[in-house]
Amino acid sequence: MFYRLSRLIFLIFLGLFTIYLFYLLTIIYKIYQFRDINPMYTSLMEYQIGEQAKDIQLTWTPYKSISNDLKRAVIAAEDDKFIQHQGYDWESIENAIYKNLKQKKKVGGSTISQQLAKNLFLNSEKKISRKLNEFVITFFIEMILSKKRILEIYLNVIEWGNKTYGVHAASKKYFSIKPYELNALQSAKLASMINNPKYFDKNFNEPYLVKKTFVILNRMDYSIAP
Asked: Which residue ranges make up each domain of the chain?
């Protein structure tokens, strides 16, 4: 009886592992494609707005056509060790875990690469399984894509307001200019919106956002884009 139960458990585990391995291989294949092919919509977009995500046509902006100020601003705001790390900022993760457990604060420790993994293939659910998948996928993103390509895709797919995705849509919506025309102050403003884009879309001149913009602006002097 015990042998049969153990065998059943083993077969179930093997089946689940096989399914996950197939899922992971599919993700890896897509990441390889993203070296040369630009994603037109993301899993997070589908999660947020459903089938309408496929109707949103992302206007792709090549890396060289994106303001260097914006690249530096986003790195300053979201991941100041982006150039140095291999996908994970262990110090930030440790601090986030400490604040979440000890101070009961919802603090994130995700790098740009981890955020890209979530955007491309996952969703924003607060589940351990989602976070573990993000952790694994980030490893392959860093292994397969260059830092420039990671940042390029990230800036072209992230949310910057209600149904506003990517730097082209954001620069046009908020400043009526093209991505390469963004100056340092405008770039810092956009970077300051990333953690809560829908709210700041409706509160674009909120004092807190203005204050955060100038904090990021001051930090940009120490940011280096790939």
From this structure: 1-33, 34-222
pLDDT in tens, 72-112: 999 999 999 999 998 888 777 667 666 665 655 555 568 99
What DSSP string runs through 64-105?
Answer: GGS-HHHHHHHHHHH-TTTTTSSS--HHHHHHHHHHHHHS--
Q: At what angle do helices 207-219 and 184-193 cross, to 10 degrees?
A: 120
- Supply the pLDDT for residue 102: 60
**Which one is predicted more confidently, 164 or 89?**
164
Lookup: tokens for 85: 């790390």
CATH topology of domain 34-222: Penicillin binding protein transpeptidase fold (1.10.3810)
Please give the Cα distance from 164 to 64 (Å, whole number). Answer: 21
Strand ranges for the chain from DSSP E = none
